[in-house]
């Protein structure tokens, strides 16, 4: 029997739920495991976003496992890849002219690149024991600070994973056939400069 793949979104919610359970114990010894679960929840969020661009992103960048590096690649092809936005529509009163009554379909929530960098690497510091020099200088890890960071991030991820819309992207794209392998190559035209060359892998 073929095993069905779980979505990154579902997996991310599982990691977040485990992190919340660990934080609820209020056991300082469990914090390091909560950090791991929260970081994996971030990874799942960014990986789920990357899957939306499978038909536009070269294969090589998809091998990047660190969320900041992958998100940076996504923003190279779509500057809005890490942007939160609300989708609404209105009936046109004339061609190209929207009426005053708008209907909101939902909001897609994403973490900005700067936020991903700060929380992902910031928490990563706590996954390691203090160095000999740090201990000698009295630079011990601040457990209260770590717990607050974890609580704040968990709340942020709950908000992100509760978004009513996900895997949505918009933009002008063009598709052409590769002259070598005949496979379709899809790239977005937004921000593409005249005469600029594109590399595919």
Strands, helices and their partners?
Elements (H helix, E strand, L loop, with lengths): L7 H17 L6 H21 L15 H11 L7 E10 L2 E12 L4 H12 L7 H5 L6 H19 L11 E5 L6 E5 L13
Antiparallel strand pairs: 1-2, 3-4
Helix pairs in contact: 1-2, 1-6, 2-3, 2-4, 2-6, 3-4
Short description:
The protein has 201 residues and is α+β, with helices and mostly antiparallel strands.
Summarize the structure in words.
The chain is of the alpha+beta class. It has helices spanning 8-24, 31-51, 67-77, 113-124, 132-136, 143-161; strands spanning 85-94, 97-108, 173-177, 184-188. The strands form 2 sheets. Strands 1-2 form a two-stranded antiparallel ribbon. A two-stranded antiparallel ribbon has the order 3-4. α2 (31-51) runs parallel beside α6 and α3 (67-77) packs antiparallel against α4 (113-124). The longest helix is centred in the first third of the chain and has 21 residues, at 31-51. The protein is globular. The model has no long low-confidence stretch (mean pLDDT 85).
Q: Regions with pLDDT < 50 over 5+ consecutive residues?
A: none
Number of strands: 4
| Strands in their spatial order, largest beta sheet | 1-2
Helix content: 40-55%
What string gives the helices and strands in order? HHHEEHHHEE
Task: Please tell me what the overall shape is.
Answer: globular
> Major β-sheet, in short?
2 strands, antiparallel
Per DSSP, the total helix count is 6
Comma- or semicolon-separated keywords:
6 helices, 4 strands, two-stranded antiparallel ribbon, 201 residues, alpha+beta, globular
């Amino acid at each position: 029997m073929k095993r069905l793949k779980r979505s990154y979104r579902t997996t991310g919610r599982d990691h977040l739920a485990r992190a919340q359970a660990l934080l609820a114990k209020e056991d300082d010894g469990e914090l390091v495991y909560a950090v791991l679960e929260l970081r994996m929840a971030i990874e799942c969020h960014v990986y789920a976003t990357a899957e939306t661009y499978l038909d536009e992103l070269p294969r090589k960048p998809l091998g990047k496992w660190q969320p900041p590096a992958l998100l940076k690649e996504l923003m190279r092809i779509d500057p809005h890849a890490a942007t939160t936005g609300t989708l609404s529509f209105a009936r046109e009163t004339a061609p190209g002219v929207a009426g005053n009554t708008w209907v909101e379909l939902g909001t897609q929530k994403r973490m900005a690149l700067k936020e991903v960098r700060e929380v992902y690497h910031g928490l990563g510091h706590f996954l390691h024991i203090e160095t000999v020099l740090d201990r000698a200088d009295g630079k011990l890890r601040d457990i209260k600070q770590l717990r607050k960071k974890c609580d704040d991030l968990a709340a942020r991820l709950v908000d992100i994973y509760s978004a009513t819309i996900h895997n949505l992207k918009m933009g002008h794209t063009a598709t052409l056939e590769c002259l070598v392998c005949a496979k379709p190559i899809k790239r977005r035209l937004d921000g593409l400069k005249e005469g600029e060359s594109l590399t595919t892998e």
